[in-house]
DNA sequence: ACGTAAGCGAGACGGTACGTCGCGTCTTACC
DNA sequence: GGTAAGACGCGACGTACCGTCTCGCTTACGT
């Protein structure tokens, strides 16, 4: 009895309506009324659940990140040993399952706040992996770790964004992971086609 | 008759006001009235120059990109030969000079449209460099070029964003370039502290 | 089984709350919630007894008028003979006993509907007295009877309203009656201080 | 240039719309939107002129009272000498010209506030006449002057209210005045048909 | 140099959306 | 069966900005 059945139904309807409509017309162009109409809910009811549409989006994103975290937790341990690519694989699969939501978050809709939430979450995982590696493998980063982390997350997010926006049958997740792993192990110089530097 | 002196002054005032205010309170929170008040200009006058605040921001961004392009053109040729890091260096210097504007663009203010303009411009330059290398050095990319480009630009933008948001005396541009070059040549595996892969 | 004890209690609480609150803040400014809170009753309960706050007020007023009628019936017969002032005296005493309710009714609270109910009741009594006089004393009104009735009731209500709004120890009811009687018998010309007209 | 032509037009339209609609459906039943639609004016425009519909009604009433005052001022002086009935005559004529407005004010629409304004204005004039008489004719009121004033104004307002609500060709103003004068000079006892008291 | 076309400020206006409040209906659980 | 608690659809509130529109005043340009 933790939560009224009606409440659960109403919230679900609002969340779904939000995602649909942002895909169709973009977050800024939406009014609260648009959302409530699509969800078939009174406008006042919206406000009894969320302060404004930003909060709704934030909650939706938070739920998504919680879900992602559930999927990631079992595999980050392993990856801390070396470069397995398992976390990225999980993330790609999650993105495949929740494609629309990933799209709108990664597009920076909603003033980029949800994207920032996402990026921060990735950065947190990245930091965790880094710490794990340093401890287990007794290695020291050779370039500023902050910069390294930023570069990594930026790369990941950019690729992810590109992947979820592909409309034609997209490249399989496993192949993306393979490429990213190659890129991480050998660098862009090699990836571009040059041979190992002198 | 190129442009009335009054017009030039008004536009300048509006552009500056926009940047200041976005830094202070964020793009979405601004009203046209806020901008015109800060610029000490009538609201009607604003509308005789720009359709809305999005257009103003777009123009400001376009001007910035044109300036960046001027600085980049002389050096992209050289970098097409190998990995010189010169274009990134120029960009960092430009960002140092126009710090506030870079910040708000990279934060994704204004619905991320300016950021998309910026990213696209970077992608265009990247594509140019790629083409140049393929032709001059007779090399073939070893991973999907689209993915490679996305990853690269994502990395660049993420690092740039981090760099312009630093408040303490930031790391010198030359050092950032050195690190990025190392990262590109040897990969993240090496950068993390591991030795060359098996 | 005339009426559940709980029901009686609830209605009483609502009526009292209404009167108190209208005195404090005025009818229009009240919400149903205000009333139910003061009465310590659930909002839904209110609606199971009254359609809305207007109906509650109407019922309260109707009860008051029924009570007034009970007090008036024994004395209107006598007054039909001449001008005894007994009905007005009874009304003033009733108003003294139910001061707050009289105040809010006479102020025209609730869109003036209760006041109209009150005025109509007075007019009915007045008509009754008139009819009685015409029959018993064989007199004919010297001015339009409709106008005469309106003037009379208007005078009564205005004086009553003034009397119940006095906060200091008000003029005794008997004295008010005496004055009104003088006024009725001799007219305002005399009351103002002039001597009998030419 | 004291006042923008557009402003004058807008206000006029709102005032007229108010009166029309109150006659049709009553003040309480009106929404601001109803008024602005009838006036063919934007709802926001309404709020740039009046705080709410009560203020609009108050202004309309105030204007009416100012007009009435203009008509009354020349004649109250004369009436201070004796009982000429001229002020009442003027008021009746004014009521004939502005019938709808008088109706809604006298009905107590708008929480009775406009009616109170009207009553107060009458009381002010009455007090003025009283003072004039006391001074010029060296007479002293024979009953409490406060009560006398209330009774008088109440009578006036009641008769006025009845008169403006008549739909059939109403009794001529002059005749009403004659009757009220008779009533004032000789009292209700006489008017009812009885002969002068012993 | 100066008259005139422009740029400009002020602000009224019709709109749209906001976030809030109160309505009257309803469902659920308690006593 | 009367009640309390509270979700819900609805409609109005008063506010904030939007983009458009006069209306006069000021200012810089072109002849």
From TrEMBL, chains A, B, C, D:
Residues 8-68 form the HTH tetR-type domain. It comes from Streptomyces alfalfae. This is TetR family transcriptional regulator. Residues 31-50 bind DNA. The keyword DNA-binding applies. Keywords: DNA-binding. Coiled coil: none annotated. Pfam families: TetR_N. PANTHER family: ACREF/ENVCD OPERON REPRESSOR-RELATED (PTHR43479), TETR-FAMILY TRANSCRIPTIONAL REGULATOR (PTHR43479:SF7). InterPro entries: DNA-bd_HTH_TetR-type_CS, Homeodomain-like_sf, HTH-type_Tx_Regulator, HTH_TetR. It comes from the Bacteria. PROSITE patterns: HTH_TETR_1, HTH_TETR_2.
């Amino acid at each position: 009895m933790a939560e009224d059945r009606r409440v659960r139904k109403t919230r679900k309807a609002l969340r779904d309506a939000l995602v649909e409509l942002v895909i169709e017309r973009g977050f800024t162009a939406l009014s609260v009324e648009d959302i409530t109409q699509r969800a078939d809910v009174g406008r006042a009811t919206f406000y009894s659940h969320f302060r404004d549409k930003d909060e709704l989006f934030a909650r939706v994103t938070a739920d998504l990140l919680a879900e992602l975290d559930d999927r990631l937790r079992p595999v980050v341990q392993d990856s801390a040993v070396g470069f397995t690519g398992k976390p990225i694989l999980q993330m790609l699969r999650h993105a495949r399952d929740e494609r629309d939501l990933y799209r709108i978050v990664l597009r920076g809709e909603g003033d980029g706040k949800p994207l920032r939430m996402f990026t921060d979450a990735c950065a947190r995982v990245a930091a965790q992996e880094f710490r794990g590696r340093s401890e287990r493998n007794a290695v020291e980063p050779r370039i500023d770790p902050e910069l390294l982390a930023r570069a990594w997350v930026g790369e990941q997010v950019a690729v992810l964004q590109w992947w979820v926006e592909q409309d034609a049958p997209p490249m399989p997740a496993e192949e993306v992971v393979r490429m990213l792993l190659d890129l991480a192990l050998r660098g862009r110089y090699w990836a571009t086609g040059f041979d190992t530097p002198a």
